[in-house]
Structure formats: structure tokens, C-alpha cells
Amino acid sequence: MSELLYYDLKDTAGVAPGLATQVCRELGRRIVAGHFSEGGLIDDENKLCTRFGVSKSVVREAIKLLVGKGLLEVRRGSGTRVRRRASWNLLDDDVLAWHQGIEPKPEFLRQLMDVRQMVEPNAAGWAAQTATSEQIEDIRNAQHDMEQATSIQDFVVADALFHRSVLRAANNEVLIALEGVIFSALLSSIKVTNSDPRENKRSLPLHRQVLKAIEARDSQAATSAMREHLADTYERLSGVLPDFNANRGASEQEG
Amino acid sequence: MSELLYYDLKDTAGVAPGLATQVCRELGRRIVAGHFSEGGLIDDENKLCTRFGVSKSVVREAIKLLVGKGLLEVRRGSGTRVRRRASWNLLDDDVLAWHQGIEPKPEFLRQLMDVRQMVEPNAAGWAAQTATSEQIEDIRNAQHDMEQATSIQDFVVADALFHRSVLRAANNEVLIALEGVIFSALLSSIKVTNSDPRENKRSLPLHRQVLKAIEARDSQAATSAMREHLADTYERLSGVLPDFNANRGASEQEG
DNA sequence: GACAATCGAAACATCAGATGTTTAAAATCA
DNA sequence: TGATTTTAAACATCTGATGTTTCGATTGTC
Q1: Other CB atoms closer than 10 Å to residue B235's CB: what's the count?
Q2: Is B175 on the interface with A (CB under 8 A)?
Q3: Mutate to test the interface with A, among B90, B112, B118 (most CBs of A within 10 A)
Q4: Which of A85, A173, A204, B5 has the most crowded Cβ, counting Cβ within 10 A?
Q5: How far apart are CA A88 and CA A96, in angstroms?
Q6: From the CB of residue B3, how many other CB atoms can be counted at a distance below 10 Å?
Q7: CB of A214 within 8 A of CB of A166?
Q8: Are B167 and B179 contacting, i.e. CB atoms less than 8 angstroms apart?
Q9: Which runs of E-coded beta strand occur in chain A?
Q10: Beta bridge partners of residue A82, listed in sequence order
């Protein structure tokens, strides 16, 4: 499951997660997977205690965590409800990670890609202006690892680290908080295209170009190269997912 | 305090916050305000119980909430530490709200504005393509409220709602999750420029242009108008804050 | 005196049970 | 029927006990 890969990339490992975190993740996965109807009640505290075999305090802490992520809403006396998706903190690392546990939805993936196309060319441009030599070194190393990768997994990890390095090199705290979006989109894309390593190597020249432009402090070139790279990814996804561009430019729904 | 204004805009009101939420907010404010050294220990559970006059379960839930926002790190046996700022979930609504409780830091505000300049022109462009008639109506109403506003507060709220309407009209779930960044930047900007209502009215023509372009389904015009509006804001901030552009490479690009 | 093994206090983790408050639905009555 | 009262369900909070981990202090040997 690539949810674990996501957590690896965020190096959330190291610390042993307590029971509350475990229960939180288990519930979170089910909510994101759509096992509960929007606005529907989930089991009460006692049932959850029995189901997970833990005490009430643990369940309460787990629920508090999910409330913090916007997934649940607790009403005293009434019960605990699943909030509508529009209220979820979609940028929360766990919420994004849990999305990796389900089949990628074409429209959501497109939205993630739209945001990547908005964010990363700018990030590359800023990186060319402000990156320190250490930050450029990080980008170079990631690029090198992409070249050397032999398995799909190694390649994806190196790819993710490349884009993260660029993002960090832009030296904008708020921007860095968006790295989860990039990881999520990247992992989902790989899952969808399921391309073999050779196919992936196709994107290497553009990554090289981004690196070169940043090294040369050429902001516009970095922006362009990154934009071109993402457009290529975008196109590949369009080819594989029929609904990828479906709900674009037209909407008049709502029930 | 405009932290409350932030919460109003996110309509987090309605439900009475329990003790855990109160303690969480109180601690969160202090952390964001920098009352603790990075990596430093905070009081242990018992001391916090005494300090806030609540039971251990409440304190534990509050701490779990802060861990979920990346502000704290709990190590069994050792204690609870404040994580370094780079690990905070800066896009979390509460974290952004707590930033409103302190004097805006020029560099952080610039970073927020950079992100706005990256996000909102795109959002306006997409809104021109995908907005429903109801969504356009929302934008129109917000714009109307801006025209009619008499107090600074009314104006800021209408301004925030205008930008939120545009963001929502882009019909991208991930994008919507960034509305907190816009609110935060907007409220900080007002606090800094402290401009009187008449001065604010200066931005009305550009808002009108954005609205007109979206109504006309002219994506490029919407993007341009929004870009121009933000560039204007950016410039005004540069004039007031000497350090606003301090840690910065040089030029802007984007095309 | 240096170093390693041991011990114990501090701090978080979990559990169990009791009591208060709020909500919403069921029961009751005019 | 419609308004009021009652009651059961569910969350909120408190209390106290026990387990586990960490880290520093103590101790004992060489």
C-alpha cells in the first residue's frame, strides 16, 4: 500500500504511534474510503471501545484528532457525524495519505495536478533566485538518484525527493506546506499509469533541465522547464484516464 | 483581536468549544507567539492541569490536537516538546488564526502574499471557465458589499468573502483548502497598512474588473485583473514595511 | 578516577468507573 | 392534534490507579 510510502516520504516514522493514533488512522481510512455516508453518524464511544478493544480515553483522543482534520463533527448528546467532504482539511498529511489507500479518482487527481501546475513552476522559478548551494546540492542528488534508480519504487521516491527539494529551495514556509499535495499526486499518478522504469526515464531530460536552470540561476528557464515537465505528465494521465478532463468547464449540478 | 475575525470568516462558530479546545487554543497561541524555545519542553501534564484548572483527560486531548497540527511532539517518559517551526502545519486554520494574535512578521506576510499571487490569478482564470451562476452571484454580492461598506471591518469581511467566492468558483477542492492563506494574508495586510475606508476603496475598480471578466467568461482577463490587484496590494505593503522584500532574490516573472 | 551496571524518579499511556450535561425522541396530557 | 414532560442515549469531565519508557543519579568494581 502506498499510504506507507507517503508516510515514509514525510518521515513520520521513528516514533511508535500510540493506540490513539492507530485508531485515528483506521477510522480516517474508512471515512476517506467513503464507508460512511456524508453527515451520517458513526458508532458511539462505547461501541468504538469494544470494536477496537481500547479504553474510552483512547477513542476520545482519536476522535479529537479526526475533528482537528475536519473529518468529524462531535455534537454532545447527539453523536459524532462525518462532515461533508468540502469541510475536510484536504491538505492535511494524514488525509492525503489516506487517499493513497483507495483507487485514485480521476477528478481528484486532476485537481491535484492543476494545483501542481500552479505551484511548481513558480517554485522552480523562486528556487532559481533564492536556493542556497546546499539546497541545490539536494536537488542534484535527487536527480542523480532518479538516473540510477532500477525499481519503480526507487524511481518514485527519488522523483518525489527531487520535487520536494525544489519546493524547499524556494524558501517559502507556506509553499513547503504544500509538499503533501505533490507527493499525493505523484503517487497516484504512478499508480494510474503503472509505467515501467524505462517509460519513466522519459521524464529525465526535463528534470535535468530544471536542475540546470536552477544552477544557472535562470528563473524563467526553471519555470518553463518545470511547466513543460508537468504538462507532459498531465498529457500522459489524460491518455490513460478517460474521465480525467471530464468535469472541466461545465457544471450545473448540486442535488 | 482579529483572530476572532478569522474564526468568524471560517464560520467555526456555532458550536460551543469544549475545554480541550480552549486549552488547545491557549497553548497554541503561546507557541505561535514564540513563548517557548524551539525544541524546548513545555510543562508536564500535571502542571498544565493545575495551570488551567482542568483534568488530565482534557489536557491530554488538547495536546493531541496540537500534535495533530504539528506544533508539539510527545515523547513518552521524556516530556512534550515544541517542534521547530518548519514542522508546523502552517495551512491549518487554527495555526493561521493564531498568527493573527501576534504582530505580523514582514517576511511571513511576504511569503503569504507570494502564495496569493501564485494562487489567486489562476483561481480567477479557472473561475471564469467553470463558475456556476450561483457562484457568480456570490461574487457579485461580495463585490456589492465592498462598495457599500462603511466601516473598515465591514470592508475587510466583504473583501475576504469576495476572494473566497472566486476561489470556490474555481471548483477545485484542493484550491479551496487554501482559503485560510488568503484570509490570513488579508487580515495581516489590513493590520499593517491600517488604511482608512477611503484608501481601501482604491481597490474597488480592480475587483469590479475581476467580476466583469468572470461574468464574461474571459479567463485571461480575470487572471490579469486579479494579478494586477494583488500587485497593487503587494506594492502598498512594500511601501509600509521596510523589511517586506528583505530576504528576496530579485525580480518577478510568470507569464 | 573511569566506566559500566543498576536503580529510581519523572513523565507519558492506558484503563476503569463515576457523575454531569445536552440532545432528541418517546410518552403524556390538555 | 399539539404542546409539554419525561427519559434514554451520547458526549464531557473528573478521579485515581497501574503500566511503560526515558534519563539521570547512584553505586560498585577495576
Answers
A1: 10
A2: yes
A3: B118
A4: B5
A5: 11
A6: 18
A7: yes
A8: yes
A9: 72-75, 79-82
A10: A72
Q: Which residue of B has its CA nearest to A14?
A: B75
Burial of A186 by CB count in 10 Å (0-12 exposed, 13-18 middle, 19+ buried)?
buried
Q: Which residues on chain B are in Cβ contact (under 8 Å) with A68?
A: 65, 68-69
Point out the nucleotide closest to A79 (alpha carbon to C1′).
Answer: D10
d(CA A157, CA A186): 10
Neighbours of B154 (CB within 10 A): 14
Partner-chain contact B85 A173, CB within 8 Å: yes
Grid coordinates belonging to B234: 503587494
At B79, is the secondary structure helix, strand, or coil? Answer: strand
Give the pLDDT of chain B (255 residues) as one tens digit per residue. Answer: 688 889 888 877 546 688 999 999 999 999 999 999 999 999 999 999 999 999 999 999 999 999 999 999 999 989 999 999 999 999 999 999 999 999 999 999 999 999 999 999 999 999 999 999 999 999 999 999 999 988 888 899 999 999 999 999 999 999 999 999 999 999 999 888 876 667 778 889 999 999 999 999 999 999 999 999 999 999 888 888 877 776 665 444 443
Q: Among partner residues B91, B132, B175, which is closest to A115 by beta-carbon distance?
A: B175
C-alpha cell at B80: 512534550
Q: What's chain B's length in residues?
A: 255
The model's pTM: 0.90
Report the candidate in A46, A9, A7, A44 with the shortest Cα–Cα distance to residue A25.
A7
Cα dihedral A183, A184, A186, A192 in deg (nearest 10): 160
Question: Measuring CA to CA, which residue among B204, B222, B115 is closest to residue B155?
Answer: B204
Which residues in 65-124 of chain B line strand C, with CB less than 7 A from it? 74-80
Q: Over its length of 255 residues, how does chain A's per-residue pLDDT go in tens digits?
A: 688 889 888 877 545 688 999 999 999 999 999 999 999 999 999 999 999 999 999 999 999 999 999 999 999 989 999 999 999 999 999 999 999 999 999 999 999 999 999 999 999 999 999 999 999 999 999 999 999 988 888 899 999 999 999 999 999 999 999 999 999 999 999 888 876 667 778 889 999 999 999 999 999 999 999 999 999 999 888 888 877 776 665 444 433
Q: What is the distance between the alpha carbons of residues A84 and A224, in angstroms, rounded to a whole number?
A: 38
Closest approach of chain A CAs to the CA of B131, in angstroms? 7
CB contact under 8 A, A175 and B114: yes
